[in-house]
Amino acid sequence: MDERRMVRISKYLAKHLRHQPERIGITLDANGWVEVDTLLTAAAAHGFPVSRAELERVVADNDKRRYVIDGDRIRASQGHSVAVDLDLPAAEPPAFLYHGTVARNMTAIRAEGLQPMNRHHVHLSPDRETATRVGARRGVPVVLVVDAAAMRAAGHEFRLSANGVWLADHVPPSFLRFPG
Questions:
Q1: Where are the alpha helices (DSSP H) in 15-154?
Q2: What is the pLDDT of residues 26-39, one digit of tens each?
Q3: Which parts of 16-157 are beta strand (E)?
Q4: One short Pfam family name for this protein (predicted)?
C-alpha cells in the first residue's frame, strides 16, 4: 500500500472514529469503540472499501498512533468531538508539558488559557519537538510551556492517551509560559 492510500485511510478513520460516525452509519460505544467488521462493512457500503490488512497496517504504522485495535474493536486514541469517555485514569504528568499553536491564537490563549475548543480535552505534548510539529500544521508554530507540576499541585487532573498525548480539561493562563 502506498503512502497516499495510508494517509487517505487514516483521514477517513479520523473523520468517522472521532467526529462523524453517523455519516457511515456506525455507532461508537460509550468509550469510543466500534467492532472492526462493522467499520469495514460500513466503509465499503459508503464507497470506501478498506481491507482488514490495510486497516491493521494504518493502525500499526501511524507515526502518531492515532488508533488502537483491541481484539475485534477499534477506536481513536483521542481527539473526539463526539461524546465518548475514553476511561483513562488520572496520571502523574512530567513537570512540564508543551502545546503547539500559531500566533493568531495567542490573544485568546493569554486571556483564557488553553481550551478544548470542539474537542473533549486540551492536547499536550511530552516534548517541544512534538509540540512544534503540531503547531506547524496551521502555520509558523508557537510553542507554549505548561507548568504541569504546578497544575497538578493545584488539583488539576491529567490523563495519558494510548499514543502518549497528555489530556487536560483546560489550562489556565497562569500555568502557561509564553515565548518572548
A1: 36-45, 52-61, 106-112, 128-136, 148-153
A2: 999 999 999 999 99
A3: 34-35, 67-70, 73-76, 96-102, 122-124, 141-147
A4: PTS_2-RNA
Give Cβ neighbours of residue 24 (< 8 Å, ≥ 6 apart).
Answer: 16, 42, 43, 45, 46
- d(C-alpha 64, C-alpha 130), whole Å: 10
- How many domains would you assign to the chain? 2
Instruction: Evaluate whether 31 touches 85 at the Cβ level (below 8 Å).
Output: yes
Q: Are 88 and 159 contacting, i.e. CB atoms less than 8 angstroms apart?
A: yes
Task: Tell how strand 96-102 and strand 141-147 pair up.
Answer: antiparallel
Q: Can you read off the three cell numbers belonging to residue 54?
A: 490495510
Domain range for 7 is 3-76
Inside any domain, residue 57: yes
pTM: 0.80
Cα–chain center distance at 127: 16
**59 lies in the same domain as 121:** no
